[in-house]
What we know:
The chain is α+β, with helices and mostly antiparallel strands. The protein contains four helices and 17 strands. The protein starts with a strand and ends in a 15-residue tail after the last strand.
Amino acid sequence: MVTYIDATAAPLRNTGVIRLYDADSFAGMRKACQLTARCLDELYPLVKPGVATDVIDRFVFEFGMDHGALPATLNYRGYTRFTCTSINHVVCHGIPNEKPLREGDIVNIDVTYILDGWHGDASRMYPVGEIKRAAERLLEVTHECLMRGIAAVRPGARTGAIGEAIQTYAEAERCSVVRDFCGHGVGRLFHDAPNILHYGRANEGPEMKEGMIFTIEPMINLGRPHVKVLSDGWTAVTRDRSLSAQYEHTVGVTADGCEIFTLSPAGLDRPGLAA
Length: 275
């Protein structure tokens, strides 16, 4: 049975109960999420051939420090980096390192800042130099999946409507939806209820109610949906080594739809792609 609670009365841990946030909470989330979106904007000119992902990681840390925010991933369940950088066939949770990016790569950069106790969570895909048309198409399809999922958010609908919108479009475009990872509630906690599946049916899942805050972050593969986690315990890759892409926004359910907290101030929600 799905239960809901006023977020101000809920304990600061994931109990499986869905929190409903007030206007002050939405204001706090706007600030945290806009800081994350600004960082992702600033990364755009840095992502180019020859730049190592640990340089990107260090930039994320320093940008956060300059603005009074901490990266939420640092020391989260033993993770030692400030961000996740997932290249080509890496689905998610790629660990930054000293290896330079190469012409034609695609990379997802996932940033979450904690600002005044609120978590701003978002990710974008970045093309590295000139990329092949197949990779460009995957990025276009994946971003459209995200936006179709967001368009399904409204009070009274179920979270399965998000998944159905994403799955229907992805599969019509001959791509597949990763099922091993999902979106999640977010706010005072990094990961909270409910889970937001990126596949399913519109009549499934918890009912969306005004005040809910969660991420939508579809992972779309050019090949089959199956993934495996490498021996580092974090890096998830496609089993068939096909390209994978992901875009992520944090949204809050409003009286008549939703607010996207992590929209790019510079209009760079699809960096490197035509508008």
